[in-house]
Amino acid sequence: MENIKITPFQLFVLIVLFQLGSAIVVAPGVEAKQDAWMSIMLGLIGGLFVFIIYYHLYKQFPELSLIEYLPKILGKHLGWFVGFLYSLYFLYIATRVLRDFGDLLVTAIFPQTPLFIINLLMTLSIAYVIYLGIEVLARTGEFYFLLLMFIGVIVNTLFFISGEVETDNLLPILGEGWTPVIKGAVPTLLTFPFGEIIVFTMVFPYLHNQKYTLKVGLIGLVFSGVLIAFATMMNIAVLGIDIVERSSYPLLSAISKIRVGDFLERLDALAVISLIVGMFFKIAIFFFAGVYGATTLFKVNQYQKLIMPMSIIVLVSSISIAENFSEHIEIGLKIVPNYLHLPFQFYIPTALLMITLIKKKFTIKSHS
Amino acid sequence: MKTTQFKRAIPLKSLIKRKKGADVDTFSESKDESGAQQKSSIEAHVEKMNNTMGGTSDLIEREIIINTKPLIKGVAFFINGLVDNEQVSDFMLKSLLNDSFDLEEAKEFSNTTLEHLIEKQLLTVSEVKMETDWDKIIHHLLSGNTILFVDGINQAFIGSTEGGEWRSVEEPKAEVAIRGAKDAFIESVFTNMALIRRRIKSPKMQFEMFQLGNSSQTDVAIIYMNGITNAKLVQEVRRRINKIDVEHLLNSATIEEFIQDKTLTIFPTVYNTERPDTAANSLTEGKIVIIVDGSPFVLIVPVTFSQFFKSAEDYYQRYDISTLIRILRYISFTIAVLGPSLYIALITFHQDLIPTRLVISLAAQREGIPFPAFIEALIMETTFEILREAGVRMPRAIGQAVSIVGALVIGQAAVQAGIVSAAMVIVVAGTAIASFTTPAYNLAIAGRILRFAMMILAATMGLYGITIGLIALVAHLASLRSFGAPYLAPFAPFIPENHKDGLFRLPKKIFNK
């Protein structure tokens, strides 16, 4: 491992940016109608539990990443294979988020620009930053975290100043009971965005001060969960649940309603900038995990060597992954959560934890 | 060069015996003891000196007869113009020529050798060194010292007579402060060292001298505070300076290029200043100052990005005013980098983001302009850069003409002729003014280059291009290090206590805690 270290605050920042990345623009949990925010909080609680699972796994093997300790739990060959699947999974999700992002930009602001060009620019910048290293990514994150928080405060203040916030839109609370709330939370919200934190098992070994990992991770999750819930609440309060349900990007629609005086209007640019930044970090972290995993699996001496080929793969497949936007969304809603997220985020880690705990028990017994 | 291999060495003993007989036996004996096998004569030294210097006409050779009993021949060498003439005549030559001195008496007073007598009694110049290494002798000669050879002594006496013409200490020209000190560094390394020493009268402050440049033999001083500056940092600076291998070292910029961490960047990772107060302040913060002879700009390492937005003035004005002005500088730098590109992006891609009334007025202005916004901006920016460069390099007398041409022809006439829109002139002018607020010239240049890069990104991908460009830019800045110190600190990594003097300038009471 290189002598690269991330401070606890940087981990916090990365987690928040990663979580907010795409979740804040799309409307997660709208199945629960105006109670979407409760769904999000429920999803968050689930997310905290899975994070604790990842943390305990990691505690067995501090200074090792997920793909590095898999062979130690599952044996050399099976472990390698599962690690390979994980590496593919990370890269696939990076590809999907890149596609999400490209489609969004095409729909929202660049209707005439080819998707390829938009994704190319994003991929290039990600490749550059990952080439500079995870430490640089973390520092860049710190800078943009402050910027995004600043934008967030301004936008929310303007929401209130412009008088667009209708709290009535949030009523009635639990009008249809708990069922839609729980349905919205499980499994969709649990897996996206909270369960995706599995990718941080690839980043943990870089932490400067290991004892803060759990605390910082939980705080980061809660912080981002609350922010997402709050943003969803604001969207619903501004737009009303009907529009939020129909719109692909409710945050953009909500912000474009801001109008203060005669001059402060059309602030979508701010939302788009936050979106680009958030997406950048989300893709970059997935991409880093995938590249770093592959580096471990194939025993490449420098992960930088894999950046070029990997980014070409991610770029090309982000275009070819689906014929059109609807197909992409369809796959994203129907197939990915059940057949990819759930196994990789819950079943495998839980199984791994159980195996290690049982193994540990046996070794302790055999010692005593 | 080999030292002290004189072919026609004639023993002192024989020379002196011809004059005074047994009187000087003690000296010659002690001479033998001091180990020089080859006795020297003055002619050998003179010949060797002339061989080395190649008979250059600014080398002055002054033959003297030292007024002792017995008389001894000597010859002094110095370089015309490098020495302080008064020092040479008063303290080197006068004392040797006029003061009568009895060697016999001195011998009785203390049992000592001839060279010690000359060094301790005869030369009244403030600093005298004895040297046998020929290279060093030549170096001292070329640094403005006077070299004295005395018949029968195998060593050279080096009197420190450095002087000659230097620019006097004047007001700083590049970094003006309204309330700050009014002295600036000059080209002499020793004067500069004194300017700093006068501000920090602490024995902790250490100077280390290096001679760099194989043929220029330039004096380079590094200054640090023992106990405040990180010892590893000093070690690293020393290592990097020792690695420098050049023929001529004429300016601190050369050193800067050799010691900086990363060559492939447009951002300066070494700070330079002409203000002694800024240098002294940096020393107290644990930084290292590097002075190069011949350059009125000293280098300071390590440096962070925020340092380039600080001005000495910040510490002389009230903290609240300083903080606001500092924030203003950051905003100005952002405008300087992003101004034209934001305009291009809005006009080309995101007309819907401009308030309706403004967009109508802009559209009316752009009616009849034959170029797209990007080309228009490029024309104006390039013209402005040319004007600026012309203004900097031109003799002052013609400078006026440049501003007239700039203001009238480029500004008004271009708009009236329908080549560029008035809004574009405003944007370019605003950007230009904003770019002048950056206190550090080398960072302002980086900003200028970035401005063009951002314009290209804006013209191709609009706001998206700018945002991606900014992410890559911040990542690049975050990856830079200056002697191990992260460049973007205290922002990234976030170091709360350093924010006392980062974006803000908090009151000194809080500061010193």
Number of H- or I-type helical stretches of chain B? 18
Strand order of the largest sheet of chain B: 1-3-6-7-5
Looking at how many chains there are and whether they match, the oligomeric state comes to: heterodimer
Largest sheet of chain B: 5 strands, antiparallel
Structural class call of chain A reads mainly alpha
- Tally of alpha and pi helices of chain A: 14
**Proportion of beta-strand residues of chain B:** 5-15%
How many separate domains of chain A?
Answer: 1
The fold-level CATH name of chain A is: Amino acid/polyamine transporter I
**What is the mean pLDDT of chain A?**
87
| Mean pLDDT over the residues of chain B | 83
Distance between the termini of chain A: 35 Å
Report the radius of gyration of chain B as a whole number of Å: 32 Å
Shape type of chain B: elongated
Task: Describe this structure as you would to a colleague.
The complex is a heterodimer of chains A (368) and B (513). Chain A is mainly α and 368 residues long. Chain A has a single domain, classed as Up-down Bundle (Amino acid/polyamine transporter I). Chain A is built from 14 helices and two strands, in the order ααααααααααββαααα. Chain A has a two-stranded antiparallel sheet with strand order 1-2. In chain A, strand 1 and strand 2 form a beta hairpin. In chain A, helix 4 runs antiparallel to helix 11. The N terminus of chain B is likely disordered. Chain B is built from 18 helices and 14 strands. The longest helix of chain B is centred in the C-terminal third of the chain and has 39 residues. Chain B has three domains: 148 residues, no CATH class; 115 residues, no CATH class; 185 residues, no CATH class. In chain B, a hairpin with a 2-residue loop joins strand 13 and strand 14. With 513 residues, chain B is of the alpha+beta class. In chain B, strands 1-3-6-7-5 form a five-stranded antiparallel β-sheet, with helices on both faces. Classes of the chains: A mainly alpha (368), B alpha+beta (513).
